[in-house]
Design goal:
Radius of gyration: 19 Å
CATH class of the largest domain: Mainly Alpha
CATH architecture of the largest domain: Orthogonal Bundle
Strand content: under 5%
Number of strands: 0
Number of helices: 9
Shape: elongated
CATH topology of the largest domain: Arc Repressor Mutant, subunit A
Order of helices and strands: HHHHHHHHH
Length: 148
Amino acid sequence: MELQLRISNLLRHQQQLRQHWQQRMGQLAESNVPVAETAADDPFLIKLYGVLDNELTNSSFSVEQLADELAVSPRTLHRKLSTLTGTNAAELIRSYRLQKAANLLQQGASVSEAAERTGFESLPHFSRSFKSQFAVSPSSYSATQNKS
């Protein structure tokens, strides 16, 4: 009986939190302030992106290491990122690296150099990931960016 009551209370609390955050996100949407801009000012995300910059070339950098650097558990990291960015830590790391690679390609770096400088050990894996995020191969992206 006590266990059922505790579970019921936890579920109710979880629902209240979900409603609270949905209302906050709705208020942000109504105020025409992009969530990304609001989240970018968050000190946690500022520190997170600093860690990602420092570990950009580390191909073995993991979610667990990121959580350690931020002094939180992997589960807490997942919850915070879900709330602030709507994505998980692994996807955020991958997306951040690919965005940095796109910036390098815009600056004239070769595809292999961009892959290496953003922590990708396998060029085919980098190309597949890049095409998945940007819907164009890295070499095509580079050629398009360097024409303009």
